[in-house]
Amino acid sequence: MSHPTLAKAPIEFYDRSTGQVAIEEIYGEGFLRWAYGNPLGRLSVAVAVKRLWFSRWYGWRMNQPKSRAKVQAFIDNYSVDPAEFADPVETYATFNEFFYRRLKPEARPVDADPSVAVFPADGRHLAIKNVDVADQFYIKGQSFDLAKFIGDAELAKEFAGGSILISRLCPVDYHRYHFPVSGQAGSVQSLDGSLRSVSPLALRRQLSIFWENRRARTVVDSPNFGKVIVMEVGATCVGGMHSTFEEGAVVKGAPKGYFSFGGSCVTTIYQNGAIQLDADLLEQAAAGRELYAKMGERCGHSSRS
Questions:
Q1: How far is CA 224 from CA 83, 182, 252, 264, in A?
Q2: Is 16 a residue whose pLDDT tops 60?
Q3: Cα atoms in the 13 Å half-sphere on the side-chain side of 278
Q4: Contact 57, 27 (CB under 8 A)
Q5: What's the rounded Cα separation, in Å, for the pair 207 and 137?
Q6: Contact (Cβ atoms closer than 8 angstroms) between residue 52 and residue 194
Q7: Residue from 104, 19, 164, 14 nearest 296 by CA
Q8: What angle do CA 284, 101, 16 make, to 5 degrees?
Q9: Which residues are CB-neighbours of 158 under 8 A, at least 6 positions away?
Q10: At residue 229, does pLDDT exceed 50?
């Protein structure tokens, strides 16, 4: 029997740029609703889709020269703006090269105020003001297990009662991610796991996907925000999470890495009392909606300022 909510309910989000609530256009929507809302679909997820070989196989397909034929149709179908691209469309040899494309710097201006934190990626963002009471999201009774998600119980204690910003990237989005604050960045710690969808269609059913999927953790010591954790989370069909930065001093908005093909997310974790998240983020979260905004736009300001 299909799950009625997953089978029919649209995904609403608030678009900060327009001030309007919109319905998400989901890439591969039919498959996702079947996979997470139908018993047979859920079996397929358990048997194949969450396995690493499935994502590696799909990632391999997107790296083949013939995948290039999908690029223009994708641009047309999802209204992607080529004027933002750092390189001409015809230079992408594969779909994956297009997928993790670079943009012109002016396409994503970064808020220059040092007391402001920014979104690390384009996407739909969900703010959780206090991770200890995060069970109002997705499904009642599901709590966010911070220690399992971070993969370090001692480190998690330092973030008890902290704030989380979940930045969910869809296949139609720009798939490079950046530092949300300036500071000293530590090394990347990889955490093994499976690769399942991070779409609300999946998370509404099983929030534990967050700490069961593959993850990469970086701790940034920021003069304005204290200790900040930036976590990349892999998802179904993500060919890889690729870090491009060097350990040491980083500036807000600097490139951190990119995802190969697939949906995925970046999660930023702030210590208790370190950040005042923007009012519209919190208002939309209270309404059960994500907020769409682009990398470099402000998401909150330091409580120290």
A1: 35, 8, 11, 28
A2: yes
A3: 19
A4: no
A5: 9
A6: yes
A7: 104
A8: 20
A9: 227, 271
A10: yes
Q: Write the DSSP string, 155-183.
A: HHHTTTT-EEEEEEEPTTS--EEE-SS-E
CA distance 210 to 267: 10
Contacts of 51 (CB under 8 A, 6+ apart): 194, 195
**Per-residue pLDDT at 30:** 42
For the chain, the first-to-last Cα distance in angstroms comes to: 53
> Which residues form the catalytic set?
122, 178, 264
Residue 57, C-beta contacts closer than 8 angstroms, at least 6 positions apart: none
> 297 lies in which domain range?
1-305
Write down how long the chain is.
305
Q: Residues 32-77: pLDDT tens digits? A: 433 334 444 443 444 444 444 344 545 567 789 999 999 999 999 9
Are 208 and 145 spatial neighbours (Cβ–Cβ below 8 Å)? yes
Torsion over CA: 148, 149, 153, 158 (sign): negative
- Helix residue ranges per DSSP H, 21-135: 29-37, 39-44, 52-62, 70-77, 95-99
> Residue 49: how many CB atoms within 10 A of its CB?
22
d(CA 67, CA 224): 44
Q: For 84-124, write each residue's pLDDT tens digit.
A: 999 999 999 999 999 999 999 999 999 999 999 999 999 99
* Contact between 290 and 284 (Cβ < 8 Å): yes
Query: How many domains would you assign to the chain?
Result: 1
Q: Tell me the one-letter amino acid at 205.
A: R
